[in-house]
Amino acid sequence: MKTSLPVKWAVGNLLAAAGCTALGLACLALQASGPSLPALWLPAGLAFSLLVIAGPRLLPGVWLGQAA
Fold first, then answer.
1. What is this structure's pTM?
2. Mean pLDDT of the chain, nearest integer
């Protein structure tokens, strides 16, 4: 079965949002145990790498993940 390109980008956006949200929650949990790791670095790094690799079509997913 061959999927169309908009479906692939929609799934990519959902995965980007889920990844940014999961890393954000993990960083908040780590920061609660000690102030050694700022809660911003891992989700921002994932978002930056996604945008560099896949381009601006994943930007809505990154925004959704950062807002969550």
1. 0.79
2. 83
